[in-house]
């Protein structure tokens, strides 16, 4: 008779087997939008599902490294026309294994067209899918509003909430007095600290933009420390920090109303932003068209308004393909 421990073990083994199946399927190069949605649902069933996939992926990466070491250690043939049979088989196996493991690693980190969450997404403490927004109360003093495609990890000091690491995406933070230390947000190589403030942090394409919406906060990056007051913002990346600038709070927080506001923004940047809110991908085929400046307010729930605008204003051709892919030319 099977006891509870045996049943639990069988369940874990089944989850792990399914996780390996997903690793192989995502590496096949034939994953579809439906596969991506099914994978997202499977990972979302429990933390154990997400953890099993992460562990299986790590095993594949370990196999890749071992295969590369085997290939590097394989002896060179002694003569041009003589190749030891075992060496040839080992080298081929190592190269094929390494290629498959590498593809799994890449597809898990950078899923094509975001058909499924990346391994970083599913392993984050908090994550939002494409088009999703969430509100989270971390404590009585700290509340988060997460925008689309956002991944966040929390960290503690001596058991107490100390801050979050914004791995990618965008979040609005409300920090109220009451904590022993200022609340921190880490983004890229910078640190934001606030005791009594409301602020927005956006970390997209290796660039960070911090906007103070109320109160005051401190932004540190490299060897610089800057204080921001209400309606001020600052940006930084690997090249350093830009000067403090005035901010339009209504535009910065428009996403909270599920709106996107563009003020003389190049069309190519508008498309990049829209792609963060919808499944599939909008692809601009005309680089000259992408230079046009856009002045518009768009609902993230009415994508057809955007395509109609592009057709009417610029006479662009719009082509819809399966999988949510849209070509603009």
Automatic annotation (TrEMBL):
It holds the Pfam family FecR. Residues 18-56 form the FecR N-terminal domain. Gene3D superfamilies: 2.60.120.1440, 3.55.50.30. One of its GO terms (molecular function) is sigma factor antagonist activity. Residues 125-216 form the FecR protein domain. This is FecR family protein. It comes from Sodalis ligni.
């Amino acid at each position: 008779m099977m006891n509870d421990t045996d049943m639990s073990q069988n369940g874990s083994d089944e989850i792990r087997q399914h996780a390996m199946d997903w690793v192989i399927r995502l590496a096949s190069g034939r994953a579809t939008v439906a596969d991506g949605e099914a994978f997202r649902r499977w990972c979302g069933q429990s933390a154990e599902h997400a953890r099993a996939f992460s562990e299986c992926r790590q095993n594949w990466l370990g196999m890749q490294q071992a295969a590369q070491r085997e290939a590097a250690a394989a002896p060179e043939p002694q003569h041009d026309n003589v190749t030891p049979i075992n060496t040839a088989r080992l080298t081929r196996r190592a190269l094929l294994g390494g290629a498959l493991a590498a593809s799994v690693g890449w597809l898990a980190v950078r899923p094509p067209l975001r058909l499924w969450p990346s391994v970083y997404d599913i392993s984050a403490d908090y994550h939002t899918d494409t088009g999703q927004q969430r509100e989270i109360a971390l404590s009585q003093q700290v509340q988060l509003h997460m925008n689309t495609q956002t991944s966040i990890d929390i960290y503690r000091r001596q058991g107490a909430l100390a801050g979050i690491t914004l791995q990618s995406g965008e979040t609005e933070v409300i920090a109220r007095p009451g904590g022993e230390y200022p609340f921190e947000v880490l983004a890229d190589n910078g640190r934001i600290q606030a005791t009594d403030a409301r602020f927005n942090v956006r970390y997209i394409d290796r660039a960070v933009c911090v906007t103070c919406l109320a109160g005051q906060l401190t932004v540190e990056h490299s060897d610089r420390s800057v204080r921001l007051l209400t309606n001020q913002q600052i940006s930084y990346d690997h090249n350093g920090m830009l000067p403090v600038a005035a901010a339009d709070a209504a535009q910065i927080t428009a996403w909270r109303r599920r709106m996107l506001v563009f003020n003389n923004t190049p069309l190519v940047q508008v498309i990049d932003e829209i792609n963060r809110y919808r499944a599939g991908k909008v692809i601009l085929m005309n680089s000259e068209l992408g230079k046009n400046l856009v002045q518009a307010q768009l609902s993230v729930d009415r994508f057809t308004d955007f395509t109609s605008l592009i057709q009417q204003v610029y006479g662009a051709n719009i082509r819809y393909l399966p999988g949510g892919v849209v070509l603009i030319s």
